[in-house]
Amino acid sequence: MIRNTESIDIQVAKRTMKDSIFTHAFRDPKNILLLYKELHPEDVSVTENDIEVVTLENILVDGPVNDVGFIVRDTVLCMAEAQTTRMKGILLRYFIYLAHTLERYMMDRRINYYSANEDNIPVWEMYVIFSKKAGIEGGPQIWRFDSIGGNLFDISNRTIVNIRKGGIVEEYTELCEMIDNVISQYGHGKDALKRIFDICKERDGPLTEFIESKEFEIMTLYEQLWTKEGNIQMNIEEAERRGRSDEQIRISLSMLNDGVPPETVSKYTGLSLTDIQKMNN
C-alpha cells in the first residue's frame, strides 16, 4: 500500500512552490497511480496496492533526495523529476539516485551483491518532466531513460514520451506556467499566493484540488514562518518594480545592518524614507 506522508511545508509558500507541488502532490496514492498510468498506459490492471513509494528522503543526515520514486509489483522501479531548467548533469544525478535507491531496496529485502539477479532486482526507468520555462524546443516534454552509457552527460539515448491531453502531467506543466505568470505580475509575496489559490478554485484536476486543499495550511504557515530574509527580499522586489537600482538597495541594507539610522540611509542612498523603513522591518 502506498504510504501517505507529512503535510506540505512552508517552502510551497516561497520560491520552491512548483517543486513542492510536484514532490508533495505525488505522495498522494491517487496521484502516483495517475502518473504511472500516464507513463504506462498499457498497464490497465495496476492498483494503488501494487505500488511502493521509494522516494529518497534524508531527515537527520545529508544525502541525495529526489522528487518521486516508486516500485510497481516489485518489477519496475520508476523515478521521476520535474525540471524548470535544463541541467547538463541530469543523468549523473539520476545515476546517483538509482544507486542509492537500489541499495536501500536490497537492504530492505536482505539481498546481497552475490545473490542479486534479474529475478529479484527490478528493471528501472527514469523520467524528466520539463515545464515550458525549461525552454525545450517543442514546449513541455517528458524524457525517458532506461539505460546509461559510459558518458553520463550524453542524453542522446533519451526517449520522448507524449504528454497525454488532459492528463496529470499536462496539468502540472500548465500549473507551472500559471505560477510563473502570477509571480511575474505579483512577485513572491502573499498577493501572489492568494491569486494562485483563486485561479486553482476555477480549475479542475487532482493537482489543483491538492493546492486548494492546502490553502489554509499554507497561508497560516506563511504568516508564522516567513522569515526576515523573505520580507527583505519582497521589499527589494517591490522597490525594483518601482525602478530602484540594485546597488542602492544593497547599500541601504548594508547600512541598516550596521545600525545606521533610516533617515541617514535615505539621505545618502536617495531612496525614500518609506522604502528604508520597510527594509528595516
Description:
With 281 residues, the protein is of the alpha+beta class. Helices cover 47% and strands 11% of the residues. The protein has helices at 17-25, 29-39, 90-108, 168-186, 190-201, 206-213, 215-225, 228-241, 246-257, 262-269, 273-280, and strands at 51-53, 68-72, 76-83, 123-130, 141-145, 159-161. A six-stranded mixed beta sheet has the order 1-2-3-4-5-6, sandwiched between helices. Helix 3 links the parallel strand 3 (76-83) and strand 4. The longest helix is centred in the middle third of the chain and has 19 residues, at 90-108. The chain is elongated and about 75 Å long. The protein starts with 16 loop residues before the first helix and ends with a helix. The model is unreliable at 1-15 and 58-65 (pLDDT under 50).
Low-pLDDT sequence parts? 1-15, 58-65
- What is the spatial order of strands in the main beta sheet? 1-2-3-4-5-6
Structural class: alpha+beta
Overall morphology: elongated
Mean pLDDT: 79
- The percent range for helix content is 40-55%
Strand segment tally? 6
Can I get a quick summary?
The chain is an alpha+beta fold. It has eleven helices and six strands. α1 runs antiparallel to α4 and α8 (228-241) runs antiparallel to α11 (273-280).
